[in-house]
Amino acid sequence: MIELTVCGCKVRVSHSSLECLMIQENIDKNGVAIAINEQVIPKSQWERVVLSNGDSVEFFSVVAGG
What we know:
5-stranded mixed sheet, globular, mainly beta
């Protein structure tokens, strides 16, 4: 088990894959940006990201407007 902070809340997960976390948290891959430990992760790297104990993960929705 690893402990993460996801959008400000402590979460314990049994996996270290960002993609598994996205499924667990019901995050749609479209229209979202992700930052881990305050660093934006390019979408092209999401499937290779391995999370570590203590990481902070933030999901940001992309909103169009003016």
